[in-house]
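With this grant's support, we have settled on a layout for protein records. An illustrative entry appears below exactly as we store it:
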Amino acid sequence: MDTSGRAWRSRIVPDYISLFPGSLEVAPFAGATRNLCDRKEVTIADQESEQADFLSHSTHAAAHFTGVITDDFTSEFDPFSPQFGEKFAPPDLPVSIKDWKGNEISRVYADHWGLTTA
């Protein structure tokens, strides 16, 4: 706790996202006064201590994947296809991304050549 009795310092959110300021992407809460989350206020008694654990919240891991959908029983005979002479790649198929419980998190679609990116 600082000497003024406040646990949080305030700051004015900049107009653009500070991670990539050159992108000129407007920041959420631009111009608003928000509290920084770099302090933790705790109440302790005489001869007690407290751990300042700022990372106790769960954070989703970022992920990126690419893939190819192919049909093992069919060959590609279109000379303009990237898969010419190889296995056929069915176009525009949905690819579902699910969590460990089977709940759909996101859905992407393959492109015309069977490639997916998410």
Q: What stands out?
A: The beta strands are 10-12, 33-35, 66-68, 71-75, 87-88, 94-98, 104-109, 115-117. The mean pLDDT is 77.
